[in-house]
Amino acid sequence: MAVFGVPHPTEVDAGNAVQCGLEILEVTDRWNGDRAAAGLTPIAVGIGIHYGEVTAGTLGDEERLEFTVIGDTVNAANRIEELAGELGVHLLVSEPALQAAKPVVDSALWDFVPDQSLRGRRQPLRLLRQKPCAKPRQAKSGATVVAL
Predict the structure, then answer these.
(1) CA 98 to CA 104: how far, in whole Å?
(2) Of 67, 68, 97, whose CA–CA distance to 80 is shortest?
(3) What is the pLDDT of residue 146?
(4) What is the pLDDT of residue 147?
(5) Which of 55, 60, 125, 126 has the CB geometry, 3.0–4.6 Å to 65, for a possible disulfide?
(6) For position 133, what pLDDT does the model report?
(7) Is 53 helix (H, G, I), strand (E, B) or coil?
(8) Angle at Cα 85 formed by Cα 25 and Cα 69, nearest 5°?
(9) What is the pLDDT of residue 52?
(10) How far is CA 113 from CA 20, 71, 90, 99, in A?
């Protein structure tokens, strides 16, 4: 999981999260080219991005202390990431995340996916994926990206 905007949120956090997801896919494609040349099986990732408030802080004691984020935004991002794998999509972005990323990301390059319910949510989130490119990918669940 990657979190953008903690502890000091800015207006570019959502855009940075979407750009990060796109760059992860580019690097994965290059790595898979190297793997194919070496006769290795390609890897695939599925990324879910959501935007909203989280509760951030440390948990634990002197022996093991962890920084973490919790809340509906984190849970929704995780569900979006799971759904990416189920739908065979490498990158799914919630509408709130893409709206917040508009200054940095061209929203014309994205398509809505058919309405999907997310486990644990009463109201469905509108989700978008990158418009199909010439080179199809095969998705599996893998990373959750949360933007604040």
Answers:
(1) 10
(2) 97
(3) 54
(4) 46
(5) 60
(6) 58
(7) coil
(8) 80
(9) 94
(10) 21, 24, 13, 16
Share of the chain above pLDDT 70, in %: 89
Residue that has been written with the tokens 């061209």 in this structure: 106
Token pair, residue 72, equals: 């509906």
**Quick one: tokens of 66?**
């962890």
Question: How many other C-beta atoms can be found within 10 angstroms of the C-beta atom of residue 104?
Answer: 15
- Please tell me the distance from the alpha carbon of residue 126 to that of residue 96, in angstroms, as a whole number: 8
Q: How far apart are CA 108 and CA 65, in angstroms?
A: 43
Which stretches of 71-124 are assigned E, i.e. beta strand?
91-94, 110-112
Banded model confidence at residue 121, pLDDT cuts 50, 70, 90? confident
Q: First and final CA of the chain: distance in angstroms?
A: 13
Evaluated on CA atoms 142, 16, 98, 100, the torsion sign reads positive
Residues 6 or more apart whose Cβ sits within 8 Å of residue 63:
none
3-state secondary structure of 114: coil
Residue type at position 30: R
